[in-house]
Each structure stands twice: as C-alpha cells, then as structure tokens.
Amino acid sequence: MKKVSAWLLAGMLLLLVGASGMAQQYNLQFRVDQDANTASGDFDVTLRIAANDTANVFELGSCNLVFDYNTASLTAPGLIGPGPDSLQIQAIHNFSGGNYQKLRLTQPAAGRLSLNIELNSPGTGTTVLPTFMDIATIRFSIVDAGQPENLAWRTASPNATLVFDQNETALALADSLYGPALLANLKVFLEGPYDSTSNTMATGINDQGFLPLIHPFSQSPWSYGKVDTATSIPADIVDWVLIELRTGTSATDSIDSRAALLKSNGSIVDLNGSSPVTFNVPAGNYYVVIYHRNHLGVMSASAVTMAETAPATLYNFTTDITQYFGTNGAHEIESGVWGMISGDANGDGGIFGEDFIQYRLNQGVEGYSLADFNMDGGVFGEDFILYRLNQGEEAGVTSPSTIIPQPTNTSPKKSVLIIKSELIESEIHSNKTPRKSDITNTVRAAKKSKVLK
Questions:
Q1: What percent of the chain has pLDDT over 70?
Q2: Lowest mean pLDDT among 139-143, 315-319, 404-408
Q3: Residue-by-residue DSSP string for 159-222
Q4: Are the beta carbons of 2 and 148 closer than 8 angstroms?
C-alpha cells in the first residue's frame, strides 16, 4: 500500500472562546497501527488529540471528529446500531463510559467518518494536555493495497470537525491537523541500573516513588520546552529519556525532539507506557540521539528509517559498539551487551571533576538525584565507584555544556554512608585509578555485607 503522507499539516489558527474568555486550540493526529504490511486485510488507525500548548490546556466536552478517506483503498467499518447509520465503539482511552456516552461512529457521506463523543454532564470533561492522547482505534478493511488511504481531517462544511469544552458553550477549532505520525522503535540500556543477572535494568527510582510524572529536561543543557507529562508511571519504567532526530551530512541539524519513557527491558515507549514514540516529521531517515539526565548521550551510527505503521524497524543500541556514532559511544556492560555510560551528573557530555562535586554535595541524599549514577534512589558509595570507573569519558555525540541545576525533591538520610575499605579510602586520598576488577569485588563485598544499598 502506498504510504500516506506523514506531513499533512494544514495551518489553521482559530480561537476557542470558553467561559473564561481565554483562547484555546487543539491538535489532531492519525496514528496508523497496522496496514497491509503488518496484517492481512486490516487497516487500523488511532485518532488522537492534544492541546496546542500549556496555555491552552482544556477539558474535553462533546465533539465530532470528522475525517475523509479513499474508498478505492479502504472500506469503512460495518455501521451498526443503535441507529441506521452508526457504530458504537469502545475507546482505548477514557472518553467512553463514566463521564461520557459510549463513542459513536457515523458515516455522513461516502468516504467520510465522524467519531462522535458526548459528555454526560457539563464540567466533568477529561483534561487534554499538550501531549497526544489516544481517543479510539478504527479498523478498516483494505480494498486495494496499491491505492493511497488519503486520511485527512475535515475543517470545512459540510461535516466540519467540531470540538467543545466541558461547559458545552465554546467551540474549539484545530490549530494544527497532522497526518499519520512516524513511529520510532528503539532499544537502549543504561549502564547504571543494568543488572547482568536478569539482563534488564532495575527500577529502583520508580519502586520508591521518586520518578516524576513530568520529564526532567526543561532545564539546560537540553532546555526542552514541551510539557510531556505522563498520567501515571507503569511499574516497569526505569526513567525518562529525551529523543532527538537529526539530519544533515554531519548529523547536526536537529529536526524534532520528544521526551519518552524507558522500560526495564530497554524499550523506549510513549507517555502511555506502551505505544511506540511518535514524531510529526516528514517521512525519511533520521539520526537518533538519546539523552539521559546522568548518562552520556549517544547517537545512532547511521540514519534510522521510521515508519507510519507499527512495528517500525527496531534500532537496537544494545547489540554492538558499531550501533553508536563515534568512538566513545558506550560501554560493554556485560559480554555482548552495550549501554550508555553513567556518571555525567551535569550533562556536559563528559565525566570530570564537576560530576564528582555533584556526588559530594549530594552524598547520602535519597530521591530523584542527578548524582544517583546507579539509579537505586540514593547517592551512596556505588555511585562514587561508577564515577571513578568512568572518569574522563566523553560522549561520542556533541552535547551542550551548561551545568544542570540539581533537582530539589530530595530528602537527606539520617547519616552519610561511609564505605570502610582500603580501595575507597585510597580513591579519596589519592589520584590513583583503581583496577576495574578491584572495584567490582569491593562492590560485591559491600552488597553482601549490606554496607551498600
């Protein structure tokens, strides 16, 4: 099947005048979940909505989301009860049942569908944030895989898209309408929390409730301005990461960025904790940069092809050093397994004295700390060991050099942990670099004696 253009961006700037008189806008997006390349005879598309920005967050009321499609390519779902021209469907988010009637799909004209949402009571709408949220998935049957689907949101009469706020008094019209998003299928490991016994990363920060619902990349050096917020954090999430797409002969032109969640198995997922990460960029190949708040950033060795349909081709950073751009991209964290390098507390792309200062300032502190290099929820001896092991390492990809302010949501421990070993004492009082085997044995002994957390 011919690819749908991933850049169906129709510029519209119209105002939603709510009860407060403030302007509000929203964005709509298609996400193609399967097509002729992934499932025989079926074409699944998810309809998504997002507020335009943080100033325009609103609570969704009743609405009709109307879009066109190519009847030479697709056949609409069978339209059944309760009326002669409607199909009741189950939403995959929270717009069906509870505060809303069950979603209803109607066909106002050939090649046109309208997803109808009805709020039961004013003032009870679901909050729409600036990050895309899934509303419902619609399954078509494929008529001709050689024809384009031509999915397009309707903004003109007849049957224009209508969206109301929760007071049912104000009409919102889209600021931006997006075609099918590109999906990124990525896997990466972090050295700090990696457990070679289970071949997964530990979720200590999450287990203790320290992992925030909003990403940590708004401050320098990243200065990521989007408010990507999760409504909840699944149990298998390790931490936040920031994904950047680049192009150009030197892979230096930044095209788009997204904050995302990293699972314990290395998969990077969108804010719902399960879906592939989406980007509203033209179809093509992109270098992928992954940043973490206290590991050195990495970039793919080559441009990665992204797809409009899941599953996109996996780019796996964990399999070999050749997956990384540059010569200092990663560490072999166990035989045949590679991961991002821990110890960059200030995010400047190198592990030097400033990072040790962050460790010393926060030693003994528990919480969501940049100096928690092994990511167990506290800044203790093992974090110092990781710093010393990796001291002098630099990222294989260019990264900003501004020092990141330390997060404040931490609480001090009653006493500071001191590791009573000749190795650690020699590290504090001399410039000698210890052998890796000595440090590994010290950590194991400390864990066994419960000196280290």
A1: 74
A2: 404-408
A3: S--EEEETTS--EE-EEEEE-PPEEE-EE--BTTTEETTTTEE--HHHHTT---SB-S-SSTTT
A4: yes
Are 383 and 426 contacting, i.e. CB atoms less than 8 angstroms apart? Answer: no
Q: Same domain for 74 and 107?
A: yes
How many structural domains comprise the chain? 2
What pTM did the predictor assign? Answer: 0.65
- Is the pLDDT at 7 greater than 50? The verdict is no
The tokens describing 166, both together, are 């929760």
User: What is the arithmetic mean of pLDDT over 4-33?
Assistant: 49
* Structure-block tokens of residue 10: 């129709």
Q: 329 and 220, same structural domain?
A: yes
Enclosing domain of residue 161: 10-180
Q: pLDDT tens-digit profile of 280-313? A: 787 788 999 999 999 999 999 999 988 777 667 8
CATH number at residue 318: 2.60.40.4130
Residue 360 contacts by C-beta under 8 Å, 6 or more apart in sequence? none
> Strand (E) positions, 26-151?
26-34, 42-51, 58-68, 74-75, 86-89, 103-109, 112-117, 126-128, 133-142
| Coil vs helix vs strand at 223 | coil
- Per the model's pLDDT, the better-predicted residue between 236 and 85 turns out to be 236
In three-state form (DSSP H/G/I as H, E/B as E, the rest C), the secondary structure along 39-55 is CCCEEEEEEEEEECCHH
Structure tokens at 358: 């962050």
pLDDT band for position 168 (cuts 50, 70, 90): confident
